[in-house]
Design brief:
387 residues, alpha/beta, Purple Acid Phosphatase, chain A, domain 2, 2 domains, six-stranded mixed sheet, exonuclease, Nuclease SbcCD subunit D, Mre11_N
């Protein structure tokens, strides 16, 4: 069976101030063409179909167009909700839509109920695990700790239990939206940290033939059977080195996997340039970036006059301007942001405690701080669901 694995469409999202709806429509057209021309038997979309719980009307219309075009091809599609989606809104009409071959899996209770598709070698069971917010689903799974690994492991137990009841030789595919250990994050994914740990081990997916992952925006191979497709379009300059693509996966009769990357059309390349303004304007080596979307970091010790206007004369698609003056490490004016770079909320809070009272928090106080951060994230998740 030939499967096209994609995720993280984020319909309705902009790239800085650039409306990406046209590029997203172009991707949908590319997806449909790939399905038709490459003999795809099933499409899987591993979450974050929309960029927010209440998407703009234009994004809903594009999603509706995508559903109709996929249904017209007669190729089954399985979709799950991600942490940016409202599971309830995305799942409206799932029963009716399923009759057209578009299978929306947004309910936690359906984790162990597969979409069964067949090829000449027998059945393939597709299990859709929507994004599982630990604080909201722990009771449904009967786990003691509201942690990503615990709830995802419980969901996979249901998958394996159902798979054990299927005829011998039944192959299996799991769709999941999670941060798996070994994956490389970017700046455009929403934080899903709970209990200080967001990542789950790839071994959680043992027992299935292929795990089609969403959430991280870079296409990645965690293991041969556990992969991220990545987002089809860039949504932050941290993705400048990404190759935007989908996975074309051939699932053999014996459960073997062969995977090929299919490139996605990107409106413009991304470029990150850095240096003093005058050097950036004069450097001939930067000519290749003149038609790219540009993030420019200026290192001038004194902020130059009208930097954006001057940059856009050479780089007309400059979207982001960052000031990072080069100073000696001991300079007291070294930016606060630089000192905090790469540090978690928990670490910043602990450093603040140490600064105020002269000693960092003990283990009990660290736990109190972590519980407070988890409570805030859980409250945000509840508000997202309620919207």
């Amino acid at each position: 069976m030939r499967i096209l694995h994609t995720s993280d469409w984020h319909l309705g999202r902009a790239f800085h101030r650039v409306n990406m709806l046209g590029a997203q429509a172009g991707f949908i057209g590319h997806l449909v063409t790939t399905v038709r021309e490459r003999g795809v038997d099933a499409v899987v979309v591993s979450g974050d179909v929309y960029d927010r719980a209440v998407p703009p009307l234009a994004a809903v219309e594009l999603f509706d167009d995508a559903l109709h075009r996929l249904a017209d091809l007669g190729v089954p599609t399985v979709m799950i909700s991600g942490n940016h989606d409202s599971a309830r809104r995305l799942g409206v009409g799932a029963g009716l839509i399923g009759r057209a071959g578009i299978h929306l899996r947004t309910e936690v209770s359906a984790c162990g109920t597969p979409v069964l598709l067949s090829d000449t070698f027998g059945d393939v069971a597709f299990y859709g695990l929507p994004y599982l917010e630990p604080a909201l689903v722990r009771d449904q799974f009967g786990v003691e700790k509201a942690a990503h690994e615990a709830v995802l492991a419980a969901a996979m137990d249901r998958v394996r239990a159902d798979l054990a009841t299927r005829p011998p030789g039944t192959r299996s595919v799991v769709l999941a939206h999670a941060f798996v250990t070994g994956g490389e994050a970017s700046d455009s994914e929403r934080d899903i940290t709970v209990g200080g740990v967001a990542a789950v081990p790839a071994g959680v997916f043992d027992g299935v033939d292929y795990a089609a992952l969403g959430h991280l925006h870079g296409s990645q191979t965690i293991t041969e059977r556990v992969r991220y497709s990545g987002s089809p379009l860039p949504y932050s300059f941290s993705e400048a080195e990404h190759r935007k693509s989908m996975w074309l996966v051939d699932l053999g009769a014996d459960g073997s996997i062969e995977a090929e990357r299919v490139d996605c059309p990107v409106p413009r390349p991304l470029a990150r340039i850095r240096g003093p303004l005058e050097e950036l304007l004069a450097d001939p080596g930067l000519t290749r970036h003149e038609e790219a979307w540009v993030e420019a970091t200026l290192t001038d010790p004194v902020r130059p006059a009208e930097p954006m206007a001057r940059l856009t004369e050479r780089f007309p698609h400059t979207l982001s301007l960052v000031f990072d003056p080069e100073r000696a490490p001991e300079d007291p004016d070294v930016s606060y942001a630089r000192r905090l770079a790469g540090r978690s909320d928990q670490q910043i809070a602990e450093d603040f405690v140490a600064h105020v009272r002269g000693a960092g928090p003990d283990a009990r106080e660290q736990a109190v701080l972590q519980d407070a951060f988890d409570a805030v994230r859980a409250d945000e998740a509840v508000r997202e669901v309620a919207r």
